[in-house]
Amino acid sequence: MSSSGPESPFAVQRVVESPFFTDRDAETRRVLDAMRGAGRLVLYGERRQGKTSIIRRAAQRIRDDGGVVLEADAWTVDSLDALTRVLLASVPATWLVGERVGRLVQALRGALVLTADSTGRQQLSMAGPGLADPHHDERLRAVLAGLDEVAAGGSAPVVVVIDEFQHLDALHPRAVPMLRSVVQDTPHLAWVFAGSVVGAVEEMIGPHGPFHAIERLEVKGIDEDHLVAWMRDRFGTHGVEASTETVRAIYARAGPVTEYVLRVANRVHRRARRSGRAEPEDVEAAFAEIVAEQESSYGIIWDKMS
Predict the structure, then answer these.
(1) What predicted TM-score, i.e. pTM, was given to this entire model?
(2) C-alpha 188: how far from its chain's center?
(3) C-alpha–C-alpha distance, residues 125 and 120, integer Å
(4) Higher-pLDDT residue of 216, 118
(5) Is residue 175 helix, strand or coil?
(6) Beta strands at 277-278 and 241-242: parallel, antiparallel or unpaired
(7) Where are the alpha helices (DSSP H) in 186-279?
(8) DSSP 3-state assignment of 134?
(9) Closest by alpha carbon to 175, among 198, 214, 141, 126?
(10) pLDDT per residue over 282-293, tens digit each?
(11) 8 Å CB contact between 91 and 144
């Protein structure tokens, strides 16, 4: 489904900013409590239900208060070394100057070295063998233990976020038990794990899973009545009248996945701006346009592969 322009009242890519973020206050508070209190939390649910937006919103508040959030997506990396590099890329520049950088490198026990990029800016790089090292799971352990030591010396939260954490099994056979052990041994770090493969996550947090003792929060779609009322208001504040019937037709076509509902609503708004009123037939036309675009894009990919 295609994205909308910046004039849209339902800017999917900016839902972490008010007023594009709605009905997630309770979930955001749960995540913030974990982040601020060096807690451990598993956030899970089907894709496109708002998990990432919740985490980003909470993470921004932590950063605004002077805390540090280190983030990595396990689905986008192919090794634990790559996961380590992504986490290190989240280390703020303020950690790489003055006394703190010395304490950081010392705490990381030779697993890392301080280097400079082409512009002269300092950066952290992994020391020693690379992907051929059969023990690079231990290097990730050392890095996380070192970060915990650094966090112990400060008052602001230090948070590690690993998205799609159920994919860790595919990176290394020891990844999951090693990480569970590290979580237990890093009392000064907060941990937030997110996952969208619900069956796999439920096994990991189940009675016999490695994350069974960790707090968990399932994220489901936004309540239909709330979302309908919110969308009607957003239509109205952006120059288009939309009845409850019309907005419920949007939900019926694209729900319950919140992102898809908003993408259809964006298209309906675009179609109705000239008349100033959105009708149920605009919903059908907008949905048909999006489906046609999807089919066209897949066709282009297929042609390129042929």
Answers:
(1) 0.73
(2) 22
(3) 14
(4) 216
(5) helix
(6) parallel
(7) 198-205, 224-237, 244-254, 258-272
(8) coil
(9) 141
(10) 999 999 988 888
(11) no
